Sequence to fold (196 residues):
Amino acid sequence: SGPRAAKRRPHFGLFSRRCGNYDGEHRRSRLSGGGVELFVNEVFRASRTLPASAERVWELLTVPEQFSVWFGTDQVVVPLDQLEMDVRPGGLMRATMQLPGGGEIFWRGAYAEVREPEFLSMGLTDQPDDELGVPITFSLEPVGGGTLLTIVQDRGDFSDEQVERTIAGYGSFLDTMESMLRKGYSARIRRPAKVG
Fold:
């Protein structure tokens, strides 16, 4: 079954820009690595050509100082001291999102397949009773003008509205990634914590 996060706390509903599409694709595939197996049924996707090499886009996905910026966008803070990323098959990921108004979302996941710099798959959830979370893949393809990054997520039991909000959230992630790349954001630069 898919994630239950959007039913109770539609994190991605914080964002408004729509990006990507739900293509109604039906497939069942198995993603596995490091003892983690994820099964994908019906999926939706968001994609964008980013102005950088696949290696540079890979850094956005796997370097904590960069991940924390785009995962939080300009809406929330993802503190580095509460972010763990063991990017290898079977490695764990944990992150905390500090929401406007004082709430928090605690994310956890496990990486299934890691092929630098072309493919990353993982399960991700914010529900304590969800062991593996929702299967998500990141595919990087060099194209003219940069790298096509495609994010694919299992639909699980999401309603059409939840799918739309999640795709909008991915649009915000991609907006932030693109902005970071255009501004020459470096792995060594940390985003200051939000105040108030």
